[in-house]
Amino acid sequence: MKPFNSGHEDLVLDVSYDFYGRHLATCSADQHVKVFKLDKESEEWILSDSWRAHDASVVSVDWVAPEYGRLLATASHDKSIKIWEEDPDGTEGSGRRWTRLATLNDSSGALYGIQFAPSHLGLRLASIGNDGVLRIYDALEPQDLRVWTLTTEVKVLAIPPAHQLQSAFCLSWCPTRFAPERLAVCVLDKALIYQRGRNGKLHNVARLTGHNGLIRSVAWAPSIGRLYQLVATGCKDGKVRIFKITESTVSATNKNNSMTSSQLTKDDSESQTLNDEEPENTTEPALQVEILSEHADHGGEVWSVSWNITGTILSSTGEDGKVRLWKSTYSNEYKCMSVITSQS
């Protein structure tokens, strides 16, 4: 672990690497976004550009897949999302190397989480904020990235919280192209999985249960070579949880009786699920959810979880100021394989 001075004048609230790990974007409560590039010889992060991106704290930043060029999305407490494009000919350090292409301001509350969809789903962006609404935007004309269309809007919370809860809203897309479009959405202490149905709308098809506090982070693992999916969460109750998600085919008429881990409770029914009526005697995927393991090694609040590119190692950070790496044993039990601190 090698610290470097980001130059931000307030708390750094999010960081994001590009696909190749050669560029790093940071955003801060100082309303600025900074992009650093890795010098291969010195292994130092060099500031490429810095600019004031929003009128309030910038809480989330994400890179698009490289197929779509050099794009960044940022979200802020000013209720807006902004799309930025890099000009490779722009002067580094000028504050003008990144050009704002679009501003998306449909949210009625502060935003907390944004993420571009996997590349096979197209140029798509999801957002969640404290108004409790999941919104998905699409660039329907890739030749004109200044135009983004709000294509999906799902009310996850029936009643938004009365006050802002920092980092209590997050989301993560399912990265595999061999499954229907899915994403995990966490609001307060609820973790829900939405899936695109045959009617083209998102349906709440499962719930990740067992959380006893605000969910700070969620990460959907790449599933290279696996027949099931893994989703990890980090929670204010001090635990890292890893869930196993598998599919089965059930009758649509018996769907609500067979999805034992996905039954909609009263709380779920309050989450607007957009479940239109489906034809009878048809089959559709049903998700079965089980918790593989939960760990309280951080001894306090867990703030972030993230998988490696193959989905075999989970990293977590918490109030103990340490990064812990988790890996599955042959018996499918997750163990802490390494603890990283700024001194080690």
UniProtKB/TrEMBL annotation:
One of its GO terms (molecular function) is structural molecule activity. It is a peripheral membrane protein. GO terms for biological process: cellular response to amino acid starvation; mRNA transport; positive regulation of TORC1 signaling; protein transport. InterPro entries: Sec13/Seh1_fam, WD40/YVTN_repeat-like_dom_sf, WD40_repeat_dom_sf, WD40_rpt. Keywords: mRNA transport, Nuclear pore complex, Nucleus, Protein transport, Repeat, Translocation, Transport, WD repeat. WD repeats lie at residues 51-85, 208-253, 295-327. Residues 254-264 have a biased composition (Polar residues). It holds the Pfam family WD40. Residues 254-283 are annotated as: Disordered. SMART domains: WD40. GO terms for cellular component: nuclear pore outer ring; Seh1-associated complex. It is found in: Endomembrane system; Nucleus, Nuclear pore complex. Gene3D superfamilies: YVTN repeat-like/Quinoprotein amine dehydrogenase. Belongs to the WD repeat SEC13 family. This is Anaphase-promoting complex subunit 4 WD40 domain-containing protein. The gene is TBLA0B04670.
